[in-house]
Amino acid sequence: MRTLTYYVATTLDGFIADPSGGFEFFPVEGDHMYHLMEEYPETLPVHIRDQLGVTSPGKHFDAVVMGRRTWEPSLSVGLTSAYPHLQQYVFSKTLAQAPDDTVTLVATDPLEYVRNLKKQDGRGIWLCGGATLAGELLAEIDELVLKVNPIIAGNGIPLFRTGFEPHYFELSESRVFDSGVVVNHLAAKR
Predict the structure, then answer these.
(1) ω before 130 within 30° of 0 (cis)?
(2) 101 in helix, strand or coil?
(3) In CATH, what number does 4-21+54-177 get?
């Protein structure tokens, strides 16, 4: 059975983006970036992969799920398929058609859809974001890979947007980088 991993950058106070959805304030330089590019090359969008000459299919994921608001920034710069090297699923109840045939739009229940994806053959599924989708999929998340940045944002889009219902995770690995970024791997306790 495939696993669902929420692999995401966050601030110390738990925000994955600024209030309008921007994430430019996260550092893209530093020793943590070399590790992440080597360990998770499949999470690099196509234009970055091309610039860096990355051809590796990656080790962890062959599919990515994301909410519409997470997908829209790439659309705004003319990138209709940010991850053509992965199966791409965008959850939206407002979009009628994807502008690229490598992207599957999903308007049905995210939890049921992802449960079915996990039953299919393949490598892991990357939950790219955002907060609402992560909240809806929380019961199916097998692993968190949190890139905790030494930043206090004060406000923004949280890791999860959901009601109070504790879900427990166990730290399986933690790596501290000179940049101040800490990458934590946490497994769901079920």
Answers:
(1) yes
(2) coil
(3) 3.40.430.10
Per-residue tokens: 162: 């959901």
Q: Residue 79 in contact with residue 57, Cβ under 8 Å? A: no
Three-state SS at 64:
strand
Half-sphere exposure of 75 (CA within 13 A, CB side): 12
- pLDDT mean over 167-176: 98
| pLDDT at residue 43 greater than cutoff 90 | yes
Mean pLDDT for all residues in the chain: 94
User: Where along the chain do its domains lie?
Assistant: 4-21+54-177
Kindly report whether the global pTM for this prediction surpasses the value 0.90: yes
Three-state DSSP at 119 gives: helix
> 10 Å Cβ neighbour count for 112?
10
**pLDDT at residue 99 greater than cutoff 90:** no
C-alpha angle 142/146/152, rounded to 5°? 145
Do strands 61-67 and 157-158 pair parallel, antiparallel, or not at all (unpaired)? Answer: unpaired
Q: What is the pLDDT of residues 130-162, one digit of tens each?
A: 899 999 999 999 999 999 999 999 999 999 999
